[in-house]
Each structure stands twice: as C-alpha cells, then as structure tokens.
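Example record

Each entry pairs one chain with its bound ligand, TLP.
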Amino acid sequence: MDIIDLRSDTVTKPSRGMRKAISKAAVGDDGFGEDPTVNRLQEMAAELLGKEEALFTASGTMSNQIAIKVLTNPGDEVILEVDSHTFNYESGAPAVISRVQLRPLKGKRGMLTAEQIAQTIRGPETPYLETKLVCLENTHNRAGGTVFPLEEMKKIGDLCRAKGIRVYLDGARLFNASVATGISLAEYARNCDAVSVCLSKGLGAPVGSLLAGDKEFIRRAKKARKLLGGGMRQVGILAAAGIYALENNLGRLAEDHRRARYLAEEINGLGGIEIDMDAVQTNIVVMSLANCKLTVPQAIEGLKKEGVLVVPFGHQRIRAVTHLDVSLKDIRKAVEIFRRVFAR
Ligand code: TLP
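Structure tokens for the complex follow.
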C-alpha cells in the first residue's frame, strides 16, 4: 500500500538532485570557518533575510534556543504566544538553558498584537523581573499555518525598539509566509533583531536551520551553539542540501498551499470535521473532531489503515501538512480516504 504521509513537511526525503548536490559538495572544517559550502549557504541566508550574517544550526529548536540565550539574561521575562512551538515543543529549554521566565499570551490565530504586548510588558520601573524579549512565529504552526500580518509585526517592532526589548522571529516556515503573501523574507525580518528559517520543513532538506542577525548577535550565537554541542565540522555536505533546497524548492511551495486549500475545502464538514478555513493560508490543515463520532485516536487509526498518516494536534484536533513528497494525485486519493473513514 502506498502511504500518503501528511504528518509533517519534515518527513520529506532528499531528492535525487539534492543527493547529487550533497555528493559533490566542497567541504572543510567549519570549526575554523573553512567549509566553503557552509559559508556560501550562510551568505545566501544573510542576504535573503537582509541581515549582516547568518549561522547554520542543526535544527529549528536549536536556533530558537540560541536566540533566546543570546538575547536574554537569566531571570528575564520572554513574551511569546501560548500555542507557539517554543512554548509547547522545545522541552522547557528556555527555563533550562537560558533560565528565563516565559510569559505566554493567547493570540488570535496565533498572532499577538502590539497592543497586547504593550499591556503586558514589565519595564525597569517595577521592582520585579523585566520583559527583555518578544518571540513571534511566522507562519504559526499550531494555529494552522497562519501568516503574521506585516503591519502588526511592524507595530510590534516599533514598540519593542522604543522600550529596549528585543524581538526574535521563529521563521521555521517563513518561506511559506513569503510565498503566500509575496512579501520578502527581508521585509518580515526587518522588524526583528534576529530570525531563523528552517531548511528541513517545506524546502525538503534533510537537516538544518539558519539563524540570522547582526555581526555581534552572530558572534555570540556561535558561542551559544558551541555550548549546546552544535559546533559542526565538514558539514558542507548538509549545507549543499540547503543550497539546493533554496535554489530549487522555494517557488514550488505555492503548490503545497493550493493542495492544502483543496484538501481543507473537500473535507471540511465531512462527518463533523470542522476546519477554520480562514486559517488555511499555507501548507497546514488543522481539523477539529469535537463534533465527530470518531475520537482522535480512532480517526488516526482509521486513516492509517487506508494509507493516510496525520498527527494528533492538541485537544480533539488532528493536523495534515502538504509538502513536496505528496502530489496532487496523492491529495485527491487522501480526500477519498477521508470520505470513507469519516462516513462510517
Ligand atoms: N515543528 C514540527 C514539530 O516539532 C511540531 C512539525 O512537525 O511541525 N518552529 C516551528 C514553528 C516548528 O513548526 C518547528 C518544528 C520548529 C520550530 C522546530 O524545528 P526542528 O524540528 O528542526 O527542531
């Protein structure tokens, strides 16, 4: 049975072209800054994101944790969205690694507003801890791949600059936001002190994330990466996959977005499935099963038996993600399978 794997866009396997690029990569010891392929990838990323420098890291989680470590001191407060990846899926790392206190706020479809943040900030005038960092996520994963409105990001950037608070953007899927809106990565990143993007999500590379900021941020980020055991050596073989992904797989994200939209339109309402269609803006479809006869485990098992994989995603919800290893034909087949499973 062919499996249609919609669990995440992280499940993609390196294509033949990507493997060829990997096999040809020039390498050197990145510990000495001598891997030419890593250096090229970092330069490409800095340019794309409009920042002075970029650093290749092992994962999105590592980029997020390095950024938090560099942009805070122990005891600081960090404002972030309650459904953000950092608050939910990073093993409590900000408390363990940076010893900061997280202040989660509930956003609308994952989006915080400048007003909300202004009302929450704790400044130097109080005898208590101070807010030193705001973390944003674009697109927002748990909200269903929603795009952060640029105008609001600008307002947040202005507010934080005026208050001396740093802004970090978890842009694991910023490529999706940029393709969906036509707004450049640099335009989004301009409102933040530091930003990360992932190569191993929709772009289809096997590993890697890029963290970008000014020279001083990257100097300190290199030390934090080392502290976390993330210093790498002849890693040009992985950077080559990243360069290949940037050069070949970026534009096609629009296809993933169309397929997610199609999937959502076809299955919304089936057997009680509820999808917030306004949230389906990129490659993620989050479905509520609150009004379905099937429970989340029953739905996942039923779909799996027929060859469609999805993941549980919070209370009474499941998630499907489109990516470069699922074709339109696969998505059409997945729709048929959803119809069969939810009609029962
Ligand atoms: N997200 C994964 C899971 O961890 C949930 C997924 O399948 O979507 N930021 C965002 C917004 C993410 O969605 C993820 C991964 C990360 C950071 C972490 O990236 P990695 O997995 O490379 O550490």
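Residues 49 and 189 are 6 Å apart (CA to CA).
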